[in-house]
Each structure stands twice: as structure tokens, then as C-alpha cells.
Design brief:
Layout lengths: L3 H4 L22 E2 L9 E7 L8 H6 L10 H7 L3 E3 L2 E2 L5 H10 L28 H6 L4 E7 L7 E2 L19 E2 L15 E5 L11 E2 L2 E2 L8 E4 L16 E4 L7 H16 L6 E6 L12 E2 L2 E2 L7 H22 L6 E7 L8 H5 L25 E3 L7 E3 L3 E2 L3 H9 L1 E2 L12 H5 L10 E4 L5 E6 L2 E6 L8 E7 L19 H17 L17 E2 L7 E2 L2 H7 L7 E5 L2 E8 L2 E8 L13 E6 L3 H4 L4 E3 L15 E4 L7 E3 L2 E2 L2 E3 L2 E3 L6 E8 L15 E6 L3 E6 L8 H4 L32 E9 L2 E3 L2 E4 L1 E7 L2 E9 L20 E4 L5 E9 L1
Helix pairs in contact: 6-7
């Protein structure tokens, strides 16, 4: 028989997607009733040991270098995507990440807190658990799993008729276990209608494949044997995990062709049917043993790059190419959500790769198995035409967020107590509904037993042990200043940061021991009103004053008040009112820069407190400047011809837009409307968060910090999460505004930015960029020197460039813009 992976050579080459299909769930997820018409197909692609630097799109756009190798297929969807520069795998190691993605839980909640699930190990899933497959299947999708599983399973013990639970490594167990049938706890038991599964991927020590629970012989004459260097077709296949039971026809060089052919078959069988489909595609590339095929669909693979590792990246790219082509050939690409990620950071394996100049971790320290960023910061992006605006976001996200995100997308409700560490990214992707940010991140690394806790920009690494009985601080980094985690800026032993280390360690232990949810409880099905977004159980978000006045009684008191030389700013917040009291007048209008007074008042006390004060509306007195004759009008409500991507709603530009044109030195004017979300914390996370980037590299923050005190002693009292250089008007991470000129949300505000780009002599910077900013007519930055980029924009982390686009960043909050124009200097 001709091996099935060769048969594809004469067929149309198509796509690389991931669908989740399952038949295990019964009644534990309440599926929303909805028509299949218009619902997107879903493809989740998870690579194996693929680092940021392995994707040429990242190398060019974020590292600003020419890549050693090209990944054209991956790049083609990355260019159309929302790319997470702060995107992570759930852990820094393969098997535990796979548990987290499937369950939406951190790995410490499983039956093997450090992993790893060998082929014969008891699975971590329990009856009644929701999984990535089940939440999509229960919404009426056809679901499929293809590729590497690595989450255990049940095979028959021939010696006693029970379940075989012995070691799967390096032992000849012929006649002891029945490897022809996967009897339970594989993908089909956990949410997938169809599966083509490699129990432990490409590396062994079990070298078999299964289709719908039955052994899939690689050749007509295949037998299950004990594979060793004497009988293996390709002895190098056994160099990762060693000898083991397997298919006598096993040839690792052809696995990428085989599984991508199965993906093509799944898509062709399900595209255009009554039910949408979900494919979860777990490629084992580019894990060792690094056995590249000679060619793949006419493209040379073996020897085409400086190393065998990089050859395998090309193999992966060809798999993706098949999936994309198939989706397009079947006419379903435009209505398919594609998410791409990796199970951990890049693999530092051979001298040839490094000697070529290739950096698998994409500029970050560490690699697979490490608690440093390179161990878990991975390629992570999402594509869905006309629904996800292409661009870049610095919002932290983990690939275990897919369960909550897909559940929200397809309309299933995840029961309380499940998927406790999965955050719904759908509002961030689509701009519909209210995105809720994580307050913190807890993760683990790999076999070294390190864990880490990240709060804001601070990251604490703890050394633990197998028993989880010790947690010794070994590193403290401020990722805002030191994203590469340079050792000389490890502050774990710094007396100045002793209290921070102790507090963060205590916080981590409290989270671990209490088993508390680590993500916000988001709505399961989001149906936004035209002007007010009301996720179930959450604080509403209003985007226009008229609707807010009708639906929110506290809106009547939101604003600024004056009586003689005293002024008050009133912020409604979770059933109370927060007051900031100024002497001399309001900020930018008479305030004497003295100490700001503060009060919290209940709703029944606010009217009496404001007696004798006059409410003022400074927004109505602003100069909404018309563009001068020499201006380039980027947006006036009439069209998007100047924008590479972005959306208009009600003649307003929505956050998440980038200009086609690149600029150097300019004066920029824009007006913004920040939404109202009356909840804690008072600073911007969750209350309206965007930003405007000059040349794609220097961000002026746009967010709701109305009525917030810049004084550090107030931050903890007022539950403020971030430093003022991240508040409205701040130059993000570099400098806070001279004065908080943020006006009340749902009032129009103005910004005028005078920017001079950095100058370069070749690759060497010779002068810094400079910026002057006026907010609402008041000078808040005066000719400020910018020593580095702010990060988070399309030019890359902390990048500095001589010219670039103007970018209105989206964090999933409905910030809106109008009257955008620029004058080049």
C-alpha cells in the first residue's frame, strides 16, 4: 500500500487548522440556542517548541532584523492578525501546557502538578469536566483533534484485563499491553467527534498513531513491535526518548505530511455543512528528534536551512500552508477564526542554529523549560476576517484563554468552578462587549520546578520542589524596564525591594493555597446594546451620555463642580461616589497644586454634599480645532482611505486603527470619547483604555483616570493598579503627565501632539525623539526627550524608528475618536 502521506502529492494542497470535536459531555454545559448560520468555523493551531524568533514575521516586525529563514504561510495569516506581543504558553513545558489549554485551569489544579502525562498515565480530566472540545461541541459544532496529545489514556493490560499503568519508556512490553485499541480517555472522550492522535507526539517513546481510538497502521505490512536502532526505518527517530513500542512502519520524516493530510480531509468533510466545525491541530513540529523530510509539496526541506531544527520549522510552515489553502479552496477561510500559538518557548538545541544568527526566543532570555520570558512568551495571534482588526496588542494573554474565549464565541456557559484560569479574549478581539483584564498572572516553568508570579510589570520567580513545599525567591524583574531580564537588574536581593518580594511571595502562596480563580468571571454570551455593553453580572459600559443618563442614576452626579475657590471632581464607582477636592480651582484651571482632599460617599449622601456647588462642563468650552489648509485629514467620519485597518461606527473611528502612511516629524490633533464604566480600580484597567502611538513606537496614553490623585500615598488607598506614567496623558512607561487633565468620561476631549522623530546614522541612534503634548488645551509634556520606545505598538517592544505609522491602540475598550488630522513638519 502506498503510505497515505505520499498520496497527498497528487492532491490540492490545503490548510492547517484545529477543531475540537467531542462526545464525552452530557449535561454539564448549558448550550445556548443559536442558528449555525453565520457562526465561524474555528481552527486552533498549536505548534511544538516553536519560539518567537522561529517566525519570520516576528523577526521583521518586532526584532527589526532580516530572518535567517522564511515562514511564508505562518506570516500570511500573522499579517492579517491581532498579534499579542505579550502572549504566552500556559507553562514552559509541553504536557502541562496541553492540560491547561484543554481544561482552562492552571496545571497545579491537576492530578500531576508538574506534569508529565505519559501514554499510559491516568488522564487529568474527571467525569463532568468541561474541556476545550466540549464547550464547542455542545454548541452544535463538529469537532476534530489532530496531532500530539500527551495527556495520558487507557489501554488494555493483557495480563489482567484491566488498564495498563506501567512506564511507557524503553521497555519491550510486547504481549503485555494491547496497543491496537485506545479504549478510553483519549480525545474522543473529551469533546472531539473525530481524532487522529499521536499519543506522545513525534518524540516517542511510543511510536504509534490512532484514528478514532483504533491503531492506524503506517504501512500495509505494519506491526506493533519494540522499535530499536536495529529495526527502525530511520534510527534517528529514536534519539529523543529512546527505544519503545511502536509501528514498524514509523518514519518521523513523514509525520508532518500525514497529519496535515488528515487536517485537509477533516476540513473538506465538514466545510459548508449545516454545522460549523472546530479543528484543534497540535503539530509536533518542531520538537526533537528533528528528522526533516527531503521535500514537502515540492519544497526542499532537508538541508534547506543552516540546521535541522530550522528545517523542521519549514515543515511546520508547509503544514500550515496546506490548512490555509484548503480553507480557501472550500470557500470558508473568510468565516474561520484561526488562532496560532505554541506549547512553550523555542528550543535551544544545536550550535548550527545559533551560529547562523537565528535566535529562537526572538530577543528574550531563556528558552523552553525556563521561567524567563523566552521559555513561555510565544507566537500568539488570531485572525478572523472583518471581525478582528489586524494590529498589535501588548495585552497579556495565555493560550489557556482559548476555552473561555471559544465558549463566549459559540454561546456556551461554563459552569462555576471550572476553567478557573481562562480569560475571555473575545471582546478584545472583536471590540464587542467589555474586555476584563487580568489582575495578575501565575505560571510555572518546567522540569526545574520554578514558578512565577506577575503583578503589573513586576515578575517574581520562585524556586519550588516536587512536593510544592518550598517557594524560595530567586529573581525579581521589572519587565517594563528590563523585558530581556538582564541579570544585573535582578532585584530579588535588593534591600529596596525586600518588601515587594515578601508581599509578592505571600500573594502567590495565598493564590496557590486558596485555589481562587485567577481570571475575571466574564460573561458567557455577550450581546451588546448599540450604546451600552452589559456583560451578565458585570458593571455596564456606556459609550454615549444620553443612554447613560437614562440607565444609570449615578451619571447625574458624574463631573466637575465649583464653589468659590474650591472645586470637586465626582466619580461614581460601584454604588458609591469618589470625590477629589481641589483648592483654588480645577486642575489646569486655577488649582494651586496643593494637597488634594478625598472622600467616599454613599449614594444617599452625594446630593447633600454638593449643595451650593455649580456643575461645570469644560468639554463644551474646548477648541475643537478644524484642520488647517496644509493638514492631512486622516479621519473626518466619512471614510477609511487613510487607514491600513480600523473600523467606523456611527461616523466615529474605533480604537484599533493604523494609518497606511508613515510619518516622521509632525503635529497631530485628535479628539477622543472615553467610555464610562463605574467600577474599581479608579485608574484605567477595565475603565476605558487605549493609546495613540507616534511612528508606531511612542505611546501617549488615552484612558479614564478622571478624578484620580497622582500622589503615590493615595494609590493603595484608592486601589490604583498602575504608575501614573500609564494614566491618561502619560507617555507610557516613561513619564507621567505634569497634571491630570482627564475630563469626565463620555465628554469629548482633545489632544495635540508635537513630535520629532529620533535620528539615526545607519543603525546607530544619534538623537532622541522629542514630544510636546497638550491635553484639553493644557500643556502636560514640554519638549520631553524620549530615550526609548514605549512598547506595545506596531514598531515592536521598546523599538525606536526614524518613521512609522500613527496607531490608535485597542485594548478591547470602546474608546472612540474623531477629527484626526496631522501637519508634517
Amino acid at each position: 500500500m502506498t503510505p497515505p502521506y505520499f498520496a497527498f502529492a497528487v492532491r490540492l494542497i490545503v490548510c492547517f487548522t484545529v477543531c475540537i470535536v467531542g462526545d464525552h459531555v452530557s449535561g454539564h454545559v448549558a448550550a445556548a440556542e443559536a442558528s449555525n448560520q453565520g457562526r465561524p468555523n474555528i481552527v486552533l493551531i498549536m505548534a511544538d517548541d516553536l519560539g518567537l524568533g522561529d517566525v519570520s514575521h516576528h523577526v521583521r516586525t518586532q526584532m527589526k532584523k532580516e530572518p535567517v529563514i522564511e515562514t511564508p504561510a505562518i506570516d500570511s495569516i500573522a499579517r492579517e492578525s491581532l498579534w499579542f506581543t505579550d502572549g504566552h504558553s500556559a507553562t514552559a513545558l509541553c504536557s502541562p501546557t496541553r492540560y491547561c489549554v484543554m481544561s482552562g485551569n492552571n496545571n497545579y489544579r491537576s492530578n500531576a502538578p508538574w506534569g508529565v502525562w505519559g501514554t499510559f498515565r491516568e488522564t487529568a480530566f474527571k467525569k463532568g469536566d468541561v474541556t476545550l472540545g466540549s464547550v464547542v461541541k455542545d454548541a452544535g459544532y463538529s469537532t476534530g483533534f489532530i496531532g500530539k496529545w500527551h495527556l495520558g489514556g487507557d489501554f488494555r493490560d493483557l495480563s489482567n484485563g484491566g488498564i495498563y499503568r506501567a512506564n511507557d519508556r524503553n521497555e519491550d512490553i510486547t504481549g503485555t499491553v494491547d496497543l491496537t485499541k485506545w479504549i478510553a480517555n483519549g480525545p474522543r472522550d473529551w469533546g472531539f467527534d473525530y481524532d487522529f492522535t499521536l499519543p506522545c507526539g513525534i518524540q516517542g517513546p511510543i511510536y504509534t498513531a490512532y484514528e478514532n481510538n483504533s491503531w492506524y497502521p503506517m504501512r500495509d505490512d505494519s506491526e506493533i513491535v519494540f522499535l530499536n536502532k536495529n529495526n527502525a526505518i530511520h534510527p534517528k527517530d529514536l534519539t529523543s526518548k529512546g527505544e519503545g513500542m511502536g509501528d514498524s512502519g514509523w518514519d518521523a520524516r513523514e509525520i508532518g505530511k500525514l497529519i496535515s493530510l488528515k487536517a485537509v480531509d477533516f476540513i473538506e468533510a465538514n466545510a459548508g455543512k449545516d454545522k460549523p466545525f472546530f479543528l484543534y491541530y497540535c503539530s509536533p513540529m518542531c520538537h526533537v528528534p528533528h528528522c526533516p523530510p527531503a521535500d514537502f509539496d515540492g519544497k526542499k526541506i532537508e538541508g534547506a536551512t543552516p540546521s535541522r531544527h530550522l528545517d523542521m520549522v519549514l515543515d511546520l510552515d508547509q503544514q500550515v500552508n496546506r490548512i490555509i489553502k484548503t480553507l480557501k479552496a472550500k470557500g470558508v477561510y473568510d468565516n474561520t477564526l484561526i488562532v496560532f500559538t505554541s506549547d512553550n518557548g523555542g528550543l535551544a538545541v544545536d550550535k548550527a542554529t545559533r551560529a547562523s544568527g537565528h535566535r529562537v526566543s526572538g530577543g528574550y532570555a531563556g528558552s523552553k523549560n525556563s521561567p524567563l520570558e523566552g521559555g513561555h512568551r510565544t507566537p500568539f495571534f488570531a485572525v478572523w476576517k472583518d471581525h478582528i482588526v489586524p494590529g498589535v496588542t501588548d495585552e497579556p494573554a495565555l493560550n489557556q484563554d482559548m476555552l473561555a474565549t471559544f465558549a463566549a464565541l459559540v454561546g456556551t456557559k461554563v459552569p462555576d468552578g471550572q476553567a478557573l484560569d481562562s480569560n475571555n479574549l473575545l471582546p478584545l478581539w472583536t471590540g464587542e462587549g467589555q474586555f476584563k483584564q487580568r489582575d495578575f498572572i501565575v505560571q510555572q516553568a518546567g522540569s526545574g520546578k520554578e514558578v512565577y508570579y506577575r503583578k503589573g510589570t513586576w515578575k517574581l520567580i520562585l524556586q519550588s520542589n516536587l512536593q510544592l513545599s518550598k517557594f524560595d525567591p530567586i529573581a525579581l524583574f521589572n519587565l517594563a524596564d528590563n523585558p530581556r531580564e538582564a541579570k544585573q537588574f535582578n532585584f530579588v536581593k535588593s534591600p529596596e525591594h525586600k518588601t515587594r518580594v515578601e508581599q509578592m511571595r505571600n500573594d502567590y502562596l495565598e493564590i496557590l493555597n486558596s485555589r481562587v480563580r485567577t481570571t475575571p468571571r466574564s460573561a458567557d454570551v455577550v450581546t451588546p446594546h448599540a450604546n451600552v455593553i452589559k456583560p451578565e453580572g458585570d458593571t455596564p459600559v456606556w459609550t454615549d451620555a444620553k443612554t447613560a443618563a437614562q440607565e444609570f442614576s449615578g451619571f447625574a452626579f458624574l463631573g466637575e463642580y465649583v464653589r468659590g475657590d474650591e472645586a470637586i471632581q465626582v466619580v461614581p464607582c460601584e454604588g458609591q461616589f469618589y470625590l477629589s477636592i481641589y483648592q483654588g480651582g480645577l486642575p489646569g484651571d486655577g488649582w494651586n497644586r496643593g494637597v488634594i482632599g478625598h472622600e467616599w460617599l454613599d449614594a444617599d449622601a452625594i446630593a447633600e454634599r454638593l449643595q451650593g456647588y455649580v456643575k461645570v462642563d469644560r468639554s463644551s468650552k474646548l477648541e475643537f480645532t478644524a484642520p488647517p489648509r496644509d493638514a492631512i485629514v486622516l479621519f473626518d467620519g466619512s471614510g477609511m482611505e487613510h487607514w491600513a485597518f480600523g473600523k467606523i461606527k456611527d461616523r466615529l473611528l474605533q480604537a484599533g486603527a493604523k494609518t497606511k502612511r508613515e510619518f516622521q516629524d509632525f503635529q497631530l490633533h485628535f479628539e477622543c470619547l472615553i467610555p464610562l464604566k463605574p467600577e474599581l480600580p479608579l485608574a484605567h484597567p477595565g475603565r476605558g483604555n487605549s493609546g495613540v502611538f507616534a511612528v508606531g513606537a511612542y505611546e501617549v496614553q488615552v484612558c479614564d483616570t478622571f478624578g484620580v490623585d497622582f500622589s503615590p500615598e493615595r494609590w493603595k488607598i484608592d486601589r490604583v493598579l498602575k504608575h501614573p506614567d500609564t494614566w491618561c496623558g502619560g507617555i507610557y512607561g516613561i513619564r507621567a503627565a505634569d497634571i491630570n487633565m482627564c475630563l469626565p468620561p463620555l465628554t469629548w476631549q482633545t489632544f495635540a501632539i508635537d513630535f520629532t522623530a529620533a535620528r539615526f546614522d545607519g543603525d546607530k541612534k544619534v538623537t532622541d525623539a522629542k514630544m510636546t503634548v497638550h491635553q484639553n488645551g493644557v500643556l502636560i509634556h514640554d519638549d520631553v526627550t524620549l530615550p526609548e520606545g514605549t512598547g506595545g505598538g506596531p514598531s515592536g517592544p521598546r523599538a525606536e524608528v526614524p518613521r512609522g505609522p500613527i496607531y490608535f491602540q485597542s485594548h478591547g475598550n470602546p474608546v472612540q475618536y474623531r477629527n484626526v488630522w496631522v501637519v508634517e513638519k
